Structures are given as C-alpha cells and as structure tokens.
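quick one before i forget lol
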Amino acid sequence: MGVLPLPLPLLLLAAGTQASGLQLDGHLDLGRCRFALGMEDGSIPDSRLSASSAWSDSTAARHGRLGRSDGDGAWCPAGPVFPEEEEFLEVDLGRLHVVTLVGTQGRHAGGHGREFARAYRLRYSRDRHRWLRWRDRWGAEVIGGNEDPEGVVLKDLAPPPVARALRVYPRAPRAMSVCLRLELYGCPWEAGLLSYTAPRGQVMALDPAPVVLNDSTYDGYSVGPLQFGGLGQLADGVLGLDDFVRSRERRLWPGYDYVGWRRPPGPRPHVELEFEFEGLRTFRAMQVHCNNMHTRGVSIFGEVECRFKRSLATAWEPTPATHSLAGAVKDPSARSVTVSLGGRQARFIQCHFFFTGEWMLFSEITFVSGESGGGAITAPCRPPPPMAAPGEPKPGQPVAKADHSHTSILIGCLVAIILLLLGVIFLILWRQYWKKILGKAQRRPSEDELRVQLSVPGDTIVINNATGVGRGPPRYERGRTLLAPPPQLIPPPAAAPLANPAYRLLLATYAQPMGGLARAPPDGAKPINTDGKGGGGGGDGEPRLQAHLAPPSDMTAGAYAEADVTGGSAYAVAGPSPGPAPSPALPAFPRRRLRFREKLGEGQFGEVLLCEVEDPQALPPLSRPPDLPRGRPLLVAVKVLRPDATKNARRDFLQEARTLGRLRDPNIVRLLGVCAGAGPLCIITEYMEHGDLHQFLGGPRGPALR
C-alpha cells in the first residue's frame, strides 16, 4: 500500500514550521554535528598534518589517516610513549570546528603490523598558541582506544571542544611501540564565538541537597569571582530541562545543565556577560535559553541591555540595544528568549541581564549573525591564512611544522645558546680557580711571619706582623674601630716582669683585627726594648714595659668585636728551652655555669661570646682568677667553634687551648677551661674588659710608651 500524500495546507504548515525553526533556533544541534572532517577522504591536506616525531619517512604524520594503508600503514612515533606520553599527532582543521567524535585505528599493514594505542589523551587549541587539555564532564582526561590493530573505535567527546587544531597523545601501559590512524568528526563552528566572560556560577541551597550551578566545563581562566578567556556550558549545545535539578546526562549532579546567579543587592541588579568573536560580524539576534521555574525562585530576565565594540582598542558604542519582556511569564517551562540586535556590527558584545526574581539560570546563549560585508546569516567564519606546507621529515627525525627557511634561524639560536652556556661555564670555573688561589693566600700567614719572641730580660722583643718588608722598626696595626678612648697608663703597684724564657708567641689571640692597616710609629718612638740598649734609656736591666692598663669606666670590648676564633691569631708555645715540661691537662669548665650576655665577634670558624659565670667561687682554682673578690660577678670570653668546622680548624682550636693552658703570667690572658662535652667545643678565657695591648699601642697614646 502506497503512502498517501499530505494535503497542501499541511505541507505548507510543516514547511513553515521547519523554516521558522531553522531561522529562530540558532542553538547548536549536536545530533547533526557528526560529519567526517577530512582525514580519510583527504580533505585535510598533508600540509596540515604534523607530529612530534616519526619512526621513519614511511610512518610520517601524513600516513596517520583512518582507513588508509599508505607508507607503512600508520603514523608511528620515533620514541616510546611510556612513561612521558609526550608524542602526539596534530591535525590543523584550518578554522574553528566543533569536534564531537574521534575515530582511531592501529597499524595493520596487510597483517604485518601489530601496533595500536589502547588509550590516548587530547589537547586542542583555538589559536595554535594556547593548548588546552580536554576533560570529560567528570574531569577524566584518558579516552579508551583500540584493542587490535585493524578495528575502528569511535569515541564521543562530551563536552565537544571548539578547536582549530587538535593533538592526539597515545598512551601505553609499558614501553612498547604504538602506531595510530585517525579521523575527526564534527562540524564548522558557525557562531564565530571565541570566548565569553561571566561571573562564577553559585550554589542554591535546596533540600535535601544543595544545587551547584557553576560552569564546570569552562576552559578559560578563573580569577576570583570571574571567568574569562574560554568557552563552557553556555556554548556546548545542551539545553536544560524545565526542572533545573534534573539533567539530560546520567550520573551528573543536580543543576549541571544550568549556570545560575543569585540576585545581588542594590538598585537594578543584573548579571554582566561579555562575548568575543573571531572578527567583525553583523548581529541580527541573540537567543538565550533560560529557566523559569518560579516555584523555586527562578525567573527569566525582565530586561537586557547590550553594548557593542568593533575592536579591542575602541570604546563601547554609546547607544545600546535593549529588549524588555512584557509582564511576568507564568509558564514555568524553560524557554529560549530571542533578543533583536538590529543588525549591529561588532566584534565584542557586552550584555546586562536584569533580575526579576531571586535567581536567574541560563543553559545556552547563541547569536544569529554573519560576517560583515554581506552574506547570509550564520555564514561560515573566514578561515585564517593557510600554514605553509612543511617538508617531510627525514627518517627518525621530528616532524617540523615550520618551513625550511626557519632552519638557519633555529641553528643560529642553538649555536648562540651553546656559546653562552660555554661562556658561563668558563666564568664559573675561572671564579672557582681564583677563589681557590685566594683562599690559599688568605688561609693563614706562616709561622715565621707571625712569630713574636718574648725573651728574658736583656733581649729585645722582635715583632714581625707579616707586612712583607723584613725586619725593621716595629709596626702596629690599628683596629677598624675604637669605641672608647685609650686607657690611661698608671704605674703598677708591683710590676710582674715577663721573665719566663719558655714563652714563645707564635700567634696572637684576639688582637688581630680583620682588614687592619699597619702604620709606623711616630717620630721619636723607639722599639720596645727590655735592656735599654738602642733606646736611650736606663741600663739597669729592668724591662722598660713597666705599665699596665687602669680600668676605665667606659671601655668596651673592641678587641673581641673584631676577633676571629682561629683565624690569624692564636697562642702557641714552642718551648725554646731544652727539655720543656709536658703540657698540663686542659681544665674542664662546667658549661651549665655559663650565662650568655652578648656577642663580641664572629670569625670564619665560630663566634666569641661574653658570658657571666654563676657562683665563680665554687670553681676550681685553675678555672677562676686568683684575685677575684668574693661576691663579684665573673665575666669570661667564650670562643665557640662551629659544629661544621674542618679538622684543621678543630686541631688549631685545640692547639690554641693547649697553648693558653701553659701560659701563666699576670700580663697575659689566662685560660680558665674548656667545654668539650656535649655541645659545641668552647674555650673559656679571662675577659679583657680594657682591650688588649695591641689596640692600645695602635691608639693615639701609644707613642707615649718609651
């Protein structure tokens, strides 16, 4: 039985409905956007195919077409895809497309090939500069691939990306060879929309669970409450249901299909959305699919106001396009509201949607437009200039997407970078070499350069301070700063002579300043002399150095502030007399009795601290001054060796302690003890509260000593 034709009026009604639907409903229909984009039939030329690398020329990117067996049958990368997964096959579509499906196939090659990709990832770009990771509606990136080299596997992309170029990254569970043939399915992106800017969607508190109304597939940037530079659910072709809690897709959270905002406070509350397009376009209308479930406080907008701008540098046109809805819409079903834009030309559109209820929910926004300069509405976008066709790669070399004219530039850049790196390496090695040389030079002067002989009465004190001028008139080093005037010289009640022939001073303790400058004594000054010869003094054999420092009230610890713990100056005893007595054991000083007061100095290997001793009368006789009055606090200088000091520094540190332990003279600082147990190694000596002789002789009153 034949099919009866419809009456003419019914045919006209059906045709009018279809035509009006095509004209007014400009929303993307994903069910009709599933066409092959040209990999298999060759519509996409070889010049738009590239890859990160190729195993050989016969497995180059141009052979990665679905259903084709050219070359060795597929694209095969040069390296393994495990574990880095950075090998990719890139397809340039020439213009913006909506990609809804991906078809993959392995390498069969007439039964000789067995390579295929069990899974893959996608990245896409709308400008070929910024590449975005594709994720499904649940946030997963990995897409299942093939199980054999010959079968074709089609995978839907939900949400479908809007892209000009797409890269496929094969994955493998282990190091293995992978080959790929590819086809993309979708349709051209006729709207020309590049991105939109909108506030973040909010959460509606409902029973039994809150409804999240955010733009979960937005692929742009998110800064604070604003999203910009991307596309999302407002342009994915999915129209929400009447009940916004339900979703068209299964296993999705309530409210997924909508992006919603709550009414803000203030006069004329509204939501601002801004849209950017590929180029200058003529706009006829805007269609907004919105929810109107007023039983839950949701209403469609009551008024919209749109402004236009032709370029990024120009200002918004002063006359907006406005549209108002007459009265409240009582029908709770979701609907598309068409807003006439009057043929305005622009590249940027900014729209304000004004609230009529507590909430406003959108699921899709599309524009009925065409390219400026004539043409039908929703005309295809003007494709960008085609890329120059790259040459085919050599076997085993990466596939280049630029022409060969850039090769010399790349080689020049690489050579410049290599030369720069070599120069940096040379400078580093040169610096280390000189640092090593200078380190050896600054490590420590020799013993002969820093030897001070303390002889018996009748011998001359000879001081050589490493000035490099040989033996001559004695020179004194001035400290960098003197915080107080020099002490007064007063005759001592009973001067103790330096009459021990066993003293030989190899290094100075705290008196060596860092960076001090040697200066000659003033005119008329004479070398310190103990027998009066050559100095124009008495010849009674008594030493001329018969003075000591009176304790001034404001003298500070300048001698310590510039002292190095082991650098440059430390006492040592060589014992010039035959058969010297053995060194006594170093006295142990109780660390628990030390109370920190201030830091006197810091050197290369440690610090010098000023500490107070608790209950000094309870210390052993060797660990306290013999003339310490009862009840008077005892201040000591504590030299602390760093825990990370070298073995040589530790040896010198202990040698200094042994040297000080053998010195017993009222004119020389005494060693009170050593802390060598748990904690840092410490040397405790008497505190020179009036400074040292070295600083005093370098002061303005030093020449008075004759």
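fyi The chain has five helices and 31 strands.
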